Structure formats: C-alpha cells, structure tokens
Amino acid sequence: MELWKVSQKVSELSDLIPYYFFSLVSSCLSLSTVLVVFSLDTWGVIGIIVISFYVVIPYSLFAVPVQVLFNKHPKKFSVIYFCLYIFFSLPAVFIYSSVLNFDFSMDILTTKNYYVISLLAALFFWFWDSVFLQKKSSVS
Length: 140
Description:
Shape: globular
Helix content: over 70%
Strand content: under 5%
Radius of gyration: 17 Å
Largest sheet: none
Structural class: mainly alpha
Number of helices: 4
Oligomer: single chain
Order of helices and strands: HHHH
C-alpha cells in the first residue's frame, strides 16, 4: 500500500475520532442514567458519573472496535447492526459483571438483569452510533 493512501486513511479516521468519543460518552451516560433511575438508589448525579466510568471500559473494549468495523459500511439504524451489538453485548456484560463480582459462575446467565442490561447497553450504543457515526460517507 502506498504511503499517501495510508496517510489519507489515517487523516479520515482522525476526523471521525470526536464522533466516536461523542458516541461513547453518550452511550455511557444513557446507560448509567437508566441504571441509576431503575435501581431506585439515592445516588443521583454522582451515581451516573461513577457508573459511567465503569461502563466506559466494556464499551471501549467490545463496542468501539465493532463500531469502527461497521463505519466502513455505514447504515443508519440498521437492525442487523443492532443484532450484532446485542451479540457482542452479551459476553461483554457477562465478563464485566463476573470480574466486578469476582464470581465466574454461570449463575449470572439465569438472572433477568443480565439480559436487560445487555439489551440496554446494545440499544444505547446502537442508537448513538447511528446518530453520530453512521453517515452516508464511509471510511474505506
């Protein structure tokens, strides 16, 4: 590959980095807000901020790489992309909750909260990805 093509791709990708950041932050804040509201704790805004810092790690490790891949063939509000985000969300929530709870048993798979959090995480990331990144111009 010629050097100027590599430079052009890096330049195009660097133009998208703020949009990846906005998508990530919006997803973290959305998921954290819903988790705090439905947990009925009195954490309020502090809880949203704290949970956002915990949520950013699995989003960064699991969802952002998939998001970069999807941005090569952008489609706004694609059901296929949503299903794939759910697919990647399930192991991400399992691994992350297992690490936080120091419990690597399969018991978490029997709880309703596991599936609700996985679905919400995928839904918020898919929504904000479609809003900020899935434009008609693609990075190839």
